[in-house]
Every structure is written in structure tokens, then in C-alpha cells.
Design goal:
It is elongated, with a radius of gyration of 23 Å. It contains 1 helix and 13 strands. By secondary structure, the chain is mostly beta strands.
Length: 190
Amino acid sequence: GQMISLSGFYKLFENPIEIVQYATTQKGSFQPRNVGDGQVIGIETEFRQNLAIIAHGLKGFYLSGNVSVTSSRIDMSLTEYKSRVENARAGQTIEEAREMAGQAPFIINTGLSYDGGENGFWKGLEAGLYYNVQGTTLQYVGIADKPDIYMLPFHSLNFNANKYIGKNNRTKLGVKIDNLLNDKKESVFR
């Protein structure tokens, strides 16, 4: 019922596919495109702890989570780089690399779960409250005068409960409630 880990990772990407905006006057024009080579480096820690270490009555409860922190980089194609330089604001500096689309700088997942065990009324019950969030993430790559579009952090708190019943526990009843915090998914231009 216990686990803790720490890991690191490094990935190289050759011509990854990202969703890029068209350089047209038409709104909402996107297409998948191979972009310049890229890389991602990061660390992740993960844990799971049975709460019986606090009190024996908490034997069926578990606290778990993982946190990832990453840094990504895409070497822009000459076309993308030139379009960004030509459309830069006064005083803005344009680098030859940018972050990778879809790669969050951090992700946090945590949960408190309950396993009803093997005997009694609570047998076959699994329930949990789970929270997750990821950092501001490049969603769509801009080009020419079209700015990049970023997805803002979305704080998600969800509840799940399942109970196995009947002969040989072959029937499952479940309840799932998403977005208990009533957070909104938002994207912004940058």
C-alpha cells in the first residue's frame, strides 16, 4: 500500500506534429504540421500511502499523487521564425526556439481514495476524490500576425464511486461527478 518514486526523462523529437494556425484572414483555420526538431526534459515524483500509519481505522484509505515538471523546446522552422520577426511588437525579442505545443510546464495529480475491503457492507466499494491541474500550455502555434493560443490552468476536482454487487460481484453501480470546483476551461492569445 506504499510507494514513492522519483524519475527523470529526456526525449528528442524529430519533426513532431503540432497544430498550427494558417496564415490567412479566415478565423479558426488550423492544420497539423511537422515543425522543427524538439526536446523535452523533466522530472516526476509519485507516491501512494495507506493512511493506516495515522490510525488503524483509516486502513482502507489511500493518499496518492504525482507531480511532473518539464521544460520543452522546439527549434522553429525558418518560415515560422521569419514570420514571428516580421510581426514582432516594438522592442520584442524573438528567439529561434519556443516551447512545444501541448507540453505543460507542470502537472499535479492528487487523490484520496477508499477501498472497502473484502468483508462486510463496504465490500466491493471503491471511491475517491481526485484533483489535477496543469500549467499554462501552448495549445495552438501562431504564425504571421496570428498569435499563439495558450490554455490556462484548469483546476479539476472529481469524485468517483463504484460498488460491485450481486452474485460473484458481476454488477457494478457507479457515480461520477466531474468539475466540483466549477472551473472553466479558458484559452487566451499571447
